Amino acid sequence: MSAKRITILALMVALLTGGKTALAWAVPNVEIVTLLLVAYALILPRRDALFVTIIFVLIEILIWGFLLWWVVLYIIYWPSLVLVVSLLKEKINRRGDILSPEKEKLYNKRVIFAAIIGVAFTMFFGVLSSFIDVVFIGGIASITSGIFWQSFVSWYMAGIFFYVVHVASSIGTLFFVLPFLYRALKKLITKIESDSKKSDPIDDEAV
């Protein structure tokens, strides 16, 4: 793995962990992880975006502790979000940089659809979280029982206010902040790569 790639991935992980931790204490249930991961999925190769996501999840486990239902939720949810956005990016256009003027329409299409996916995933987060919680409380065998689904609805409704805040914050950040964040991160990565080439004329691509 090249030095510039390590630098870029470490920076992405630091932004995720630092941003999430700061907002967790300041504004409960208003988060920027979805925004950042959607941006990473648009900017980085799929492998790198997934690598950053997994490292972020592992760091979260180290910070907040190993609670099995919470770990399962994070392992399923965040990599799935990155994977879906990455696949969308590749489907719209598999070629090169999308910041050039002739590809402005493709850029807009990618960002808009990525924002829609991010909001949809945010809406699904409360459903998946409640489902996993109830499964761990009642056991997998309880899924076929009516009591399970009653418990699931009750569990979900108990957190509905926080889910609404979560979705509203994601709508705001994904549709209004993502376009600017994408361009800023893209320019930052380009600068890091450019500085790396200036300091080392030998291109040490990742193995």
How would you describe what is shown here?
This protein is mostly helical. The chain has a single domain, classed as Orthogonal Bundle (Arp2/3 complex 21 kDa subunit ARPC3), CATH 1.10.1760.20. It contains seven helices and no strands. The C terminus is likely disordered.
**End-to-end gap:** 6 Å
Counted beta strands:
0
Q: What is the averaged pLDDT score? A: 83
CATH topology: Arp2/3 complex 21 kDa subunit ARPC3
Radius of gyration: 19 Å
Q: Helicity level, as a percent range?
A: over 70%
Tally of structural domains: 1
Overall 3D form: globular
Query: In CATH, what is the class?
Result: Mainly Alpha
| Class by alpha and beta content | mainly alpha
Written as H for each helix and E for each strand, in order along the chain, the element string is HHHHHHH
The main β sheet shows up as: none
CATH architecture: Orthogonal Bundle
Question: How much of the sequence is in beta strands?
Answer: under 5%
Poorly predicted spans:
95-102, 201-207
Number of contiguous helices: 7
Summarize the structure.
The protein is mainly alpha-helical and 207 residues long.
Question: Which secondary structure elements does this structure contain, and how are they paired or packed?
Answer:
Elements lengths: L2 H24 L6 H11 L2 H19 L3 H25 L11 H35 L7 H13 L1 H40 L8
Features:
207 residues; Arp2/3 complex 21 kDa subunit ARPC3; 7 helices; globular
